[in-house]
Specification:
With 361 residues, the chain is of the alpha/beta class. The chain has ten helices and 13 strands. Helices cover 24% and strands 19% of the residues. A hairpin with a 3-residue loop joins strand 12 and strand 13.
């Protein structure tokens, strides 16, 4: 009895709820992505569950997306590569797909149970983002309620082996269904709804001692630009700056102001410390001259390319040329020339684009 008493005192973190020798549950690694979620909507007012998670974990205040399109940005999180490196250079309904020789996230966890539950067509499976997952569930067209993905994930989560989980919520994406008299208010309501849906899943993952990374694929223009309530035509901070949070048991709470990007997500999931970047590359999804004056040609090929550092950004706008915003390092201007030209897609699926509202039927 005396020996048992001292053992308990020396091991305060022992799992004693089911007895002294209760097994430690297998590890869980979870990626949660919220579509079209602005960085300024990670807050106690708009996303209280994730804000509470961030307060006990790491919150990255200068995280960037490579593009304001769902498929390329998610593919960067699943590969650690820029879109022009992994091949998904536009949404899958444009006919783009991951290169076959690129390693995807579930392939980095051999022997683990892996599952993805996504809420919209651009997050997969078309284009290869279902590759490597034991289970991949997502709509064949359009979108599905985020609640469907959350419930499926909670029902799947195994207790007998290590697990890698990806859950994608589409609700903040337009057209906004939230309550409110204006589009901005309705957007905020959508973000609150997404956070509410994720609350039970976050609670279960915390109880399991999971490593959790929460991120957006891109943000949204509300009423700040001439083309409002969209994301695919903009390289603004409203679109490229994204929320990024990591939580795991015993993590030291921190607000991290280093420049990072969505290509760092695989390392964050593995619990690695990521180094600050000196700069970050990004692109707009497409050109529309009414939204981005001077851009040409219209469509995917006329997209802006931008390089961002601590002082500002250089922009290369086809049809207009290069210009500067703020005071970035002069040497970065030439770095824009290193981003390869867009590869032409083979077989665009226009019907999927129409269903999602990207094209007029």
């Amino acid at each position: 009895m005396i020996l048992w008493f001292f053992a308990c005192q020396l091991s305060p973190d022992s799992h004693l709820r089911d007895g002294l020798n209760a097994p430690i549950p297998p590890p869980v690694v979870a990626l949660i992505t919220i579509d079209t979620w602005r960085a300024d909507h990670l807050s106690g007012a708009f996303s209280p569950n994730i804000w509470a998670l961030a307060a006990e974990g790491e919150r990255y205040t200068r995280a960037y997306s490579p593009m304001g399109l769902t498929s390329p940005a998610h593919a960067s999180m699943l590969t650690g590569l820029y879109p022009w490196e992994h091949g998904m250079e536009a949404n899958n309904h444009h006919g783009y797909r991951l290169r076959d020789d690129v390693e995807v996230l579930p392939e980095q966890y051999p022997g683990w149970a892996t599952a993805a539950f996504v809420s919209a067509y651009p997050a997969g499976p078309a284009g290869g983002m279902d590759r490597g997952w034991d289970v991949f569930e997502g709509p064949a067209a359009g979108e599905a309620p985020g609640e469907t993905a959350v419930k499926a994930a909670m029902a799947w989560l195994p207790t007998d082996k290590p697990a890698l989980l990806w859950v994608h919520i589409y609700e903040p994406h337009g057209p906004y269904q939230g309550a409110g008299a204006t589009e901005r208010l309705r957007y905020g309501g959508e973000v609150r709804h997404a956070d509410e849906l994720l609350g039970p899943l976050i609670a279960v993952l915390r109880e399991r001692g999971a490593t959790i990374v929460v991120a957006a694929d891109h943000g949204e223009v509300l009423d700040e630009e001439r083309c409002s309530y969209q994301h695919e035509r903009s390289i603004s901070e409203h679109v490229l700056a994204v929320p990024l949070v990591r939580w795991s048991p015993g993590i030291k709470p921190a607000v991290i102001d280093d420049l990072v990007g969505l290509t760092d997500v695989p390392a964050l999931l593995k619990g690695e410390t990521i180094a600050a970047r000196s700069h970050w590359f990004a692109q707009s999804g497409m050109c529309e001259a009414d939204c981005a004056p001077g851009c040409a040609p219209a469509g995917l090929a006329g997209r802006d390319t931008v390089v961002i550092d601590a002082g500002g950004r250089w922009v290369n706008r086809p049809g207009r040329g290069k210009h500067v915003q703020g005071q970035p390092k002069p040497a970065l201007r030439a770095a824009l020339d290193g981003v390869p030209a867009l590869k032409t897609a083979v077989s665009p699926t226009n019907k999927a684009a129409e269903i999602l509202g990207y094209l007029e039927p």
